[in-house]
Amino acid sequence: MILDATDRAILNQLQEGFPIDPAPFAVVAADLGITETDLIARLEAMKTARVITRFGPFYDAAAMGGAFCLCAMAIPPGEFDAVTAKVNAHPEVAHNYERTHRLNMWFVLATETKEGIEEVARRIEVETGHRVLLFPKLQEFFIRFRVAA
């Protein structure tokens, strides 16, 4: 997919936030000078083409009393896809990435309680037969990551 100027404007604007409104897509579309239908169609096309992998809110589980934890696993290449499916079946799992390292699967767990991190990690271990290494956050840094489209 080749992004045009409107697609780039959509990506840039949505990284700045999403309006709390009964018709948020209509608000964004009006700001961009396009129709709501066009905005939604363009987002769907970008998702289908994997220009974007997800579109949705990011909740700060820790601010709501829950917890986040970076996790890693060492998965044999022949098992990677099957283990990925089992790990990703857990609604607490986000941001699952393959890396070229002995620890080749990295993902984030977000749970309602700190104890939930251990519980989900242990379930994943039982289901996959592979150890889940936990890397809890020690200190938070806000870097306002943004990618110019």
Plain-language structure description:
With 149 residues, the chain is an alpha+beta fold. The protein has 2 domains: 5-48, no CATH class; 62-136, Alpha-Beta Plaits (2-Layer Sandwich), CATH 3.30.70. It has helices at 5-14, 24-32, 36-48, 80-88, 114-128, and strands at 67-73, 93-98, 105-111, 133-136. A 4-stranded antiparallel beta sheet has the order 2-3-1-4. A hairpin with a 6-residue loop joins strand 2 (93-98) and strand 3 (105-111). Helix 2 crosses helix 3 (36-48). It starts with a helix and ends in a 13-residue tail after the last strand. The mean pLDDT is 91.
What's the number of structural domains? 2
Distance between the termini: 13 Å
Report the β-strand fraction as a percent range: 15-25%
| CATH-scheme architecture of the largest domain | 2-Layer Sandwich
Short description, anyone?
By secondary structure, the protein is of the alpha+beta class. Helices cover 38% and strands 16% of the residues.
List the helices and strands and how they pair.
Layout: H1 5-14, H2 24-32, H3 36-48, E1 67-73, H4 80-88, E2 93-98, E3 105-111, H5 114-128, E4 133-136
Task: For this entry, give a set of tags.
alpha+beta; 4-stranded antiparallel sheet; 5 helices; 4 strands
